[in-house]
């Protein structure tokens, strides 16, 4: 197994273990066993379990940035307070929201990441802050900023971007749980269709 492959396996297996058992309950030896290597070999790639955790967060953030680029919406920086300044329109926002929902509900790594963040929010202030940035107040602020730009540019109608952002994101957040509660990809796609229809209804209400 090449070094880069081993490093990625460590990230993926650690994420699954952290999601299943919680960060504190997982040992480096357990991670090494899941990857199929000895613990000393793991330290050739990461100095500590904390370094693995940070690599997971960085890896998932880079995927999020890639999705923003593909949807042609402003890149979201979960560590920054600055809002988006690039061009955005209702069509791009619609594509981004639907594809993000598909990703968070159908991709195994994304689902594990959500579970890990959900568990860790109850273990520390840092965990709570990370959960909020990725799945709570962070997405609402990001959507609010994009809607604010569109209101200023006249491509959407309305007078309260925060309320509109909550209106758009609340079904996203709720339906994540609905998608988790079903076992088949076909059932998850039906949940995706419900969300996509809701996004379309939102756009019909506010798009100019």
Notes on the structure:
- The protein has 208 residues and is mainly α.
- Helices cover 74% and strands 0% of the residues.
- It contains ten helices and no strands.
If you compute it from the alpha carbons, what radius of gyration comes out, rounded to the nearest whole angstrom? 19 Å
Instruction: Catalogue the unreliable spans.
Output: 80-85
The helix tally amounts to 10
β content, as a range? under 5%
Specify the biggest β-sheet: none
> What would you call the shape?
elongated
Helix amount: over 70%
Tally of extended strands? 0
Specify the oligomeric state: single chain
The helix-and-strand class reads mainly alpha
Average pLDDT metric = 92
Give the termini distance in whole angstroms.
Answer: 54 Å
Encode the helix/strand succession as letters: HHHHHHHHHH
Structure, briefly:
It contains ten helices and no strands.
Describe the protein's topology.
Layout: H1 3-21, H2 28-35, H3 39-42, H4 49-71, H5 90-106, H6 108-120, H7 125-135, H8 137-153, H9 161-180, H10 185-206
Helix pairs in contact: 1-2, 1-4, 1-6, 4-5, 5-6, 5-9, 5-10, 6-7, 8-9, 9-10
Summary tags:
single chain, 208 residues, mainly alpha
């Amino acid at each position: 197994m090449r070094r880069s492959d081993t490093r990625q396996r460590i990230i993926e297996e650690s994420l699954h273990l952290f999601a299943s058992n919680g960060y504190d309950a997982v040992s480096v030896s357990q991670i090494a066993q899941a990857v199929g290597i000895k613990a000393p070999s793991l330290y050739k790639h990461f100095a500590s379990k904390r370094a693995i955790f940070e690599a997971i967060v960085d890896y998932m953030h880079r995927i999020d940035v890639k999705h923003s680029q593909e949807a042609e919406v402003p890149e979201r920086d979960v560590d920054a307070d600055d809002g988006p300044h690039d061009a955005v329109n209702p069509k791009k926002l619609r594509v981004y929201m639907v594809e993000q929902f598909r990703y968070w509900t159908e991709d195994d790594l994304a689902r594990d990441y959500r579970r890990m963040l959900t568990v860790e929010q109850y273990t520390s202030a840092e965990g709570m802050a990370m959960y909020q940035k990725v799945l709570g107040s962070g997405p609402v602020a990001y959507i609010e900023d994009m809607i604010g730009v569109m209101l200023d540019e006249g491509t959407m109608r309305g007078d309260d971007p925060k309320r509109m952002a909550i209106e758009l994101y609340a079904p996203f957040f709720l339906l994540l749980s609905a998608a988790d509660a079903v076992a088949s990809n076909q059932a998850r796609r039906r949940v995706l269709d419900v969300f996509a229809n809701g996004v379309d209804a939102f756009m019909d209400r506010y798009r100019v």
